[in-house]
Design a protein that fits this description.
The protein has about 300 residues and is mainly alpha-helical. Helix 1 runs antiparallel to helix 2 and helix 4 packs antiparallel against helix 5.
């Protein structure tokens, strides 16, 4: 890189253009000088001039210089447009879009940098030998661009192969993913079928269990009813036994009273004693039966 911030090839192109511009600038200055020299040679032949004559000569000189400078500025503008056209044409053939910043054309710092570059380049060129070196030119597209074009085509072909390889890899992965999806769907259907069978079996087991529970409940209710009936029978038997006991006790009390009354009067004492003994045994037996029923109750 050089002072202008471009590579060597572009710097040489800038130097070539600046030499062309210097030459045109010199020609313009010579034209202006010749205008003044012509005025001197054609009009300044007398020693004194009136004010009107001086004004007329200056107006004529102004008109000529104005015309020459305007023509040169216009020509410079057209020249710059042609230069930009060359650059843009080359860029468009490579599908590039260049951009310009017009505000930088009035940047005093950049203008001073270009002036310093021109001064240093002009000074160094004066120190070189008088032999004219071969000036570099803009490389035509069909010569300088062929190598870059071939490299670009090779790069694009390589990228295309990479994309094809990547596409094949993605297709393989997609196929594998579809196969895996099919396997998972089949597994899901099998699992759903198994779950359906298990559900049917579970429903059947639940039905059997409900039937068993219903049978047990019926048996329990029957047993409960039988127990209730048995308890009712025992309660009635107990009441009857109690009544019999009371009746026997009453008979015993009556017999005792009669025995007390007739004990001294009748000779059947022994018979009465035997009767009392039997009654006592009957009472004991009734008490045992009563205690047995009460314990069961």
């Amino acid at each position: 890189m050089a002072e202008l911030g471009v590579n060597e090839h572009h710097q040489n192109e800038v130097v070539s253009y600046m030499r062309f511009a210097r030459f045109k600038r010199g020609m313009c200055l010579k034209t202006v000088d010749s205008c003044f020299q012509d005025l001197k040679d054609s009009r300044l032949v007398e020693e004194t001039f009136t004010v009107d004559e001086v004004i007329d000569m200056l107006d004529g000189l102004q008109s000529v210089v104005h015309s020459e400078v305007e023509s040169e500025l216009i020509n410079t503008t057209y020249t710059n447009v042609l230069l930009l056209r060359q650059l843009f044409s080359q860029a468009e053939k490579w599908y590039l879009k260049l951009q310009t910043d017009v505000s930088d054309l009035e940047n005093r710092e950049l203008l001073d940098q270009v002036a310093e570059f021109e001064k240093s380049e002009y000074t160094s060129s004066n120190k070189k030998s008088t032999a004219d070196p071969i000036k570099p030119k803009l490389a035509p597209l069909n010569e300088g661009g062929s190598e870059l074009l071939n490299k670009t085509v090779a790069y694009l072909q390589e990228e295309n192969e990479k994309l094809k390889t990547r596409l094949r890899t993605i297709e393989t992965q997609a196929t594998a993913a579809l196969d895996e999806k099919s396997k998972l769907e089949k597994s899901l259907r099998d699992l759903q079928m198994i779950q359906g069978d298990q559900k049917n079996n579970a429903n059947q087991d639940i039905t059997e269990l409900e039937n068993k529970v219903a049978a047990l409940k019926s048996q329990f209710e029957k047993t409960l009813n039988d127990t209730t009936a048995n308890q009712k029978f025992l309660e009635e038997d107990l009441v009857t036994t109690k009544h019999n006991l009371l009746k026997v006790q009453d008979q015993l009390s009556t017999a005792e009273k009669e025995l007390e009354k007739k004990f001294q009067q009748t000779a059947a004492y022994r018979n009465m004693k035997e009767i009392l003994t039997k009654k006592n045994e009957q009472i004991k037996d009734l008490r045992r039966r009563l205690s047995k029923y009460e314990s069961e109750d």
